[in-house]
Design a protein that fits this description.
Helix content is about 0%, strand content about 50%. The protein is built from no helices and 11 strands. The strands form 2 sheets. Strands 2, 4, 5, 6, 9, 10 and 11 form a 7-stranded mixed β-sheet that branches.
C-alpha cells in the first residue's frame, strides 16, 4: 500500500495548482487523509485534512480561505486545490494517511503512511 502524490510544479505568486493523492483504498470511515508541507530548513507543517467518516475538511491557518479539498471516491483520489499561492508556500507537499483521533489530525506523527512528496515552487 502506498500513497502517490501528483500535481506539483512551478507557479507564480497568486496562481493556482491542484495536487492529487491516490489513497490506495484508505477511504473507509476510519481513515483521515492529510496534506503536510515541508520547506527547506523548516519543520513539517500541517496544511489540510479530510476525514472520510464525516466528510469534513480541516485547514491550517496559513492556507484557510485559499485552499479547498475535493474527493473522487470512485478513483480513491483526494485533491487539494491551492489558490492565491504565496512564495512562502514553496515546499515539498506530502500526502499522509492514518487513523488519528480528531485532536491529532494536525500532527504529522499521527499518520503512519506517507507519499513520496511533490515539489511546489511559488515564484515572486
Amino acid at each position: 500500500v502506498q500513497l502517490v502524490e501528483s500535481g506539483g510544479g512551478l507557479v507564480q505568486a497568486g496562481g493556482s495548482l491542484r495536487l492529487s493523492c491516490l489513497t490506495s483504498g484508505r477511504t473507509s470511515s476510519s481513515y483521515t487523509t492529510a496534506w503536510f508541507r515541508q520547506a527547506p530548513g523548516k519543520e513539517r507543517e500541517f496544511v489540510a485534512a479530510f476525514r472520510w467518516m464525516s466528510k469534513y475538511s480541516y485547514f491550517g491557518e496559513a492556507v484557510k480561505d485559499r485552499f479547498t479539498i475535493s474527493r473522487d471516491a470512485a478513483k480513491e483520489m483526494l485533491h487539494l486545490q491551492m489558490n492565491n499561492l504565496k512564495p512562502e508556500g514553496t515546499a515539498v507537499y506530502y500526502c499522509a494517511s492514518g487513523r488519528p483521533p480528531l485532536g491529532s489530525i494536525r500532527t504529522a506523527s499521527a499518520f503512519n503512511l506517507w507519499g513520496q512528496g511533490t515539489l511546489v515552487t511559488v515564484s515572486s
